[in-house]
Amino acid sequence: MRQPRPPRREAPEMRPAGAGPSAFALAAAGTVVALWLLYQILTAILIFFLALVTAIALSGLVRWLQARGMRRGIAVALSVLGFIAFLVALFILIIPPIGEQASTLLPNLPGLVSKGLQRITSHLGDYPQLQQSIQDQAKGSAQLPSLLEVAKRIGGVSLSLIGGFALLIIYLSAVLYLTADPLPLMRGYVASLPRHHRAAGIRAYRGASQAVFGWMKASIIIGPVEALASGVFLTLMGVPGALVWAALAFFAEFVPRIGGYVMAIPPVIVALSVGVPTALWTAFFYFAMTELLGTLVAPVIRGTAMRIHPAVLLFATLASALAFGFLGALVGAPAAAFGVAYYREFYVKRPDAGAVTESSHRDYEVRR
Q1: Of 269, 240, 275, 267, whose CA–CA distance to 105 is shortest?
Q2: Which of 43, 97, 126, 361 has the fewest CB atoms below 10 angstroms from its CB?
């Protein structure tokens, strides 16, 4: 006869060691210290990320030179020296006339905007409420911030001339090291990933690098074209601050498809101070230039590397600029490229999410 089994005893609940209030307090304190440290070194992080983006762009030039039989060391030296020569030429030949025109334009900008808005109201006699609203805007435009206040807001970080020069040297040094010998950092990056995520991490970085390179190539080629065309057109039309708006147009392609329209807003408003026909011609010029270069030329140069919706790029650039100033505006689009690439690899293509990858689509078509 079988003996009855003794009742099973419930195992005592195991509490993880150190899960009391003191552990939570220490974790909260550690989080606060980490966030404070991150805030203190934020400028260094942005500069290093900008150096990484520049190194990715230069690496494409290095590979192009190597493919034509040049040794890597010589290719790296020529690429970095060419980039430094470009910066020197920019500061010597282009920045002084733009700064001179900007110093003349900015003090008169409130009056020009007010005059342009008044020209609009003169054609809105049948809409008194809208006319009154624009007149109020014209009065408020006379209180635009001064040149000094604008200069304080643009940088995001207040730096002296010596400090800015030191950061420039650090940035160029980081570009040189990242371009000349990227393998140690890549090995460290791969080793920091869990083993089962390394393949996805490598694909994500490769996809982000291709997107950044395509974005940079299109911006470098199309940006000067837009700047030159807008500078010549605005000068011929007599729009005040033509060189300033041309410099602004240089950065239009940094936000593909939408950037051209955003950069067109200030010169069109200022063109209203010259006359309504001038403003209409200016708006038409920017529309034609943006559509022609953005629809026909940019995709050919950029290829299919940067598969990011323009609205995402615009949001990333605007958010980064508002949060981190001028440095944030520069790294907004590359940061979006990295974010989208990692999102695709670690979320969209995640096996447990039931997502079907592009390779499985191709396999399915082959089987059919």
Answers
A1: 240
A2: 126
- The enclosing H or E element of 116 equals helix 95-121
Q: Spell 57-79 as b/e; 16+ CB within 10 A means b.
A: bbbbbbeebeeeeeeeeebbeeb
- Measure the CA–CA gap between 180 and 198, rounded to whole angstroms: 24
Q: List pLDDT tens digits, range 3-24.
A: 566 656 555 555 555 556 777 7
H-helix or E-strand spanning residue 242: helix 242-250
How many Cβ atoms sit within 10 Å of the Cβ of residue 92? 9
For 277, other C-beta atoms within 10 Å of its C-beta total 10
Query: Would you place residue 302 in the very low, low, confident or very high pLDDT band (cuts 50, 70, 90)?
Result: low
Q: Give the C-alpha separation, 319 to 311, whole Å.
A: 12
Two structure tokens written together for 2: 């079988």
Q: Residue 177: how many CB atoms within 10 A of its CB?
A: 14
Under 8 Å between Cβ of 289 and 263: no
Residue the block writes with tokens 């078509």: 365
In sign, the C-alpha dihedral spanning 197, 203, 205, 207 is: negative
The HSE-up count of residue 86 (CA atoms within 13 Å, CB side) is 11
Secondary structure of residue 127 in the 3-state scheme: coil
* Six token digits for residue 275: 């006359």
229 and 272 Cβ atoms separated by less than 8 Å? no
> Which is nearest to 286 in space by CA: 241, 217, 227?
227
Smallest CA-to-CA distance from 77 within 92, 90, 58 is with 58
Task: Please report the DSSP string for 174-210 in residue order.
Answer: HHHHHHH--HHHHHHHHHHS-GGGHHHHHHHHHHHHH
Distance CA 216, CA 214 (A): 6
The pTM of the full predicted model, rounded to 2 decimals, is 0.68
**259 Cβ neighbours under 8 A, 6+ residues apart:** 251, 252, 253, 314
Of the candidates 279, 246, 293, 251, the one whose C-alpha atom is nearest the C-alpha of residue 118 is 279
Query: Inter-axis angle of helices 95-121 and 276-292, to 10 degrees?
Result: 120
Confirm if 62 and 68 have CB atoms less than 8 A apart: no
Distance of CA 139 to the CA centre of its chain: 34
